[in-house]
Design goal:
alpha+beta; four-stranded antiparallel beta sheet; two-stranded antiparallel sheet; 47% helix
Length: 329
């Protein structure tokens, strides 16, 4: 120590060595602490990786089998629905001469009119099976395919309604199909395409129909049931509206010869009084704000013996093609 005091250089060297050694020692402790932490993290992740390597991957065979079973079940339901709708799947409608369609229309009109007259069902004066515009004008040939299909559906609709004994057919309205309105225009547009295979064909075609009739409530319900369960044609219903039609029994004074009174008659309420416009140009049904029902009317309602005016807004639907289902791998 005395030598260090006598030699300032040596003293300075000792002090610097102590400082540098202490700093190095402190730095070493800090780095060791960081190394310990990072080493722990590394070992933890190595352990996680080892565990993941030992686990079976997802999806495993059990999961795959369950998924395949679920997809097969779902596909089976789709194919079942397709089978049920097979009668409404029409890939092409055969065009026929306009004269042939006119002949089919006349035959259907005569048959349905005779059926309704036989059953005592009243028809509108200007009724022509829903094709009034073609009473005197030939149908466009380009549209005869879809028109002939519609005619078959209208024939079925009228016949089924007659089977459920309505009192009167007030109106039936068939909206013109696009093929009728744009028969020439569509063909001209299609001719401009070089590759007609690229034309988009919709999966389904919907043709609106409006039907209005008067009959007993029970018969109306059974008709609707037959409509939605048809195996020949597919109908979807957008709107159903009902209104009670006031009826009055003929008095015994008018019942010549005595005996039981005759059946009730519909009141002389006109079509305009029963149905009011709803602002969209189509006939709508005006529902009464308040009904005051006697015990007799309540009893008739329970039995389904009330006379009602029925307005149905429905669509005749058919499918032009089916979507391809993917394979289950």
């Amino acid at each position: 120590m005395e030598k260090a005091k006598k030699n300032p250089f040596l003293l300075t060297l000792i002090i610097i060595s102590l400082i540098v050694g202490g700093g190095a020692l402190a730095y070493g402790f800090v780095k060791k602490s960081e190394f310990v932490k990072k080493n722990k993290t590394y070992k933890s992740r190595v352990n996680e990786l080892d565990q993941m390597e030992s686990m079976e991957g997802y999806p495993n065979q059990e999961n795959i089998n369950k998924l395949k079973d679920s997809l097969s079940s779902y596909r089976g339901k789709i194919e079942g629905l397709r089978s049920a709708l097979q009668s409404s799947t029409i890939t092409s409608l055969k065009t026929i001469p306009s004269s042939k369609f006119a002949s089919n229309l006349v035959k259907a009109n005569k048959r349905i009119k005779a059926l309704y007259n036989e059953k005592g069902i009243l028809l509108p004066e200007d009724w022509y099976c829903g094709f009034e515009k073609y009473r005197t004008v030939p149908a466009p040939r380009a549209a005869t395919g879809i028109l002939n299909y519609q005619l078959g559906a209208m024939d079925w609709l009228h016949t089924t309604l007659a089977d459920h004994n309505p009192q009167e057919l007030l109106n039936i309205y068939r909206k013109s199909a696009n093929a009728e309105v744009n028969a020439g225009e569509d063909m001209n547009k299609k001719s401009n395409y070089r590759d007609k295979s690229k034309l988009q064909i919709p999966y389904s075609v919907s043709m609106p129909i409006q039907l209005t009739f008067i009959g007993y409530e029970e018969n109306a319900r059974s008709f609707l049931n037959a409509l939605i369960r048809s195996n020949e044609y597919l109908f979807t219903i957008d709107t159903i509206k009902l209104k009670l039609v006031e009826t009055k029994a003929k008095s015994e004074e008018n019942n010549e010869g005595g005996g039981l009174p005759q059946e009730q008659e519909s009141s002389d309420e006109s079509l305009d009084q029963i149905f009011e416009s709803e602002g969209n140009g189509e006939g709508g049904l005006a529902l009464p704000d308040k009904l005051e029902l006697s015990d007799e009317k309540l009893f008739n309602q329970v039995l389904g013996q009330e006379m009602v005016a029925v307005f149905i807004d429905l669509n005749l639907v058919y499918f032009q093609k089916q979507a391809e289902l993917p394979e289950i791998k």
